[in-house]
Amino acid sequence: MYKDKSILALIPARGGSKGLPGKNLKSLAGKPLIAWSIEQALASKTIDRLIVSTEDEEIASVSRRHGADVPFMRPVELATDMALVGSAIIHAVQTLQSMGEHYDIVMLLECTSPVRYPGDIDRAIATLVDSKGAESAVGVVENTHAPPHWNFRLTDGLLTTFIQNGLSVEQCRRQAVEKSYVPYCIYLSYWSSYEKHAMFYQPRTVPVILRKEQMVEIDEEIDLLIAETIMKHYIMHVS
What pTM value is reported for the model? Predict the structure, then answer.
């Protein structure tokens, strides 16, 4: 509990990935992918409860073996390709409420985004609670690879710019463009606000700034190879 706020951490992990079948249990630096997020959450000093939401018995078994609780199984209809993760969050919280458990803050940890340094989770919680008027907090990484100014859209088969001030892409130096940020791996909100907005991106969302190398999203086999290299650095950092 942090400053009298009860905090629930939720790791959603369905078993039906098509892009990388079985990805939540794929080996990453010697552990099942989901184990990294579980261990990071268990190391938190402020999370009161950690659960994994899944419809998959094998994921549930591996999660329990690594210390997470799976107090109920997610309905299959909330674990399809078309199902929104928000539906899994609402189902989990409402199910816990029916069991007599109530939480002030709900945190989502994506197990396909495994690079979190020690203290990141607790810093995110402190950022939300200590920011006056904040409703939610989202982990973000500065977008230094392809800022929006350098992207194009297709208009009638031609490349057209997003830039609105008459400048060309060549005239927009990296140092001169406005910074942009990509959301990543840690999302949390007061439950009362999440119920109202049904999303973590709310009118008063504060950022939790993460490091550039933490921006790893595992959707394909190549992502695992990239993550393997970065996780070796992570392991050295935390050892």
Answer: 0.88
